[in-house]
Amino acid sequence: MTKYIVVLLLSVSFMACSSQNSFVNYLFNSTKDYQSLIQNTQKADIKEKNDNIKAFMISTYLNQTAKKWDDGVLHFAIGFYIVDSNDTKAYRLDINGHKDLNQTVLDKNSTVYDTLPIKNNWADYYMIEVAKADLNITITDDINITWTKLDENLTTSIKYEQF
């Protein structure tokens, strides 16, 4: 019986290594992609002075995760969750002080949403994009995403370093 198990395992491993699109390559490539995504994902909370959380955002900086995002535009997949759902109009997002951002709803059935390493089912997700030229930044400048609750002057921010 053990002979059959050993032969089966050897057969499977040879078949897995036999082509460029093998299971082994898939496993290691998907792990690499996931590591890149998780390294470029951050969470920030908007808190009151008593540390009650009013809202939070989860941001993934896509430009650092794959060459397909390197097109002269900064791409972020950002999830926003506001504790009081009636309070959505009192918030503003900016990147390095720039407020004119292209914001589209990120469909939860999309491949971008599917690849995000950290998701919150209650958050609303958006693709946030801004041309690098509009920000007037260089490769050595940090990227600061700031989310402000306007009526209470509460702010949170996430900083990404370009590399």
How would you summarize the topology of this molecule?
Layout: H1 2-16, H2 23-39, E1 41-47, E2 53-61, E3 73-82, E4 91-95, E5 102-105, H3 111-115, E6 124-131, H4 132-135, E7 142-149, E8 154-161
Antiparallel strand pairs: 1-2, 2-3, 3-6, 4-7, 5-6, 7-8
Structure description:
With 163 residues, the protein is an alpha+beta fold. It is 25% helix and 36% strand. It has four helices and eight strands; from the N terminus they run ααβββββαβαββ. It folds into two domains: 1-39, no CATH class; 42-161, Sandwich (Immunoglobulin-like), CATH 2.60.40. The strands form two sheets. The chain has a five-stranded antiparallel beta sheet with strand order 1-2-3-6-5. The protein has a three-stranded antiparallel beta sheet with strand order 4-7-8, with no helix packed on it. Mean pLDDT is 82; it is low at 21-29.
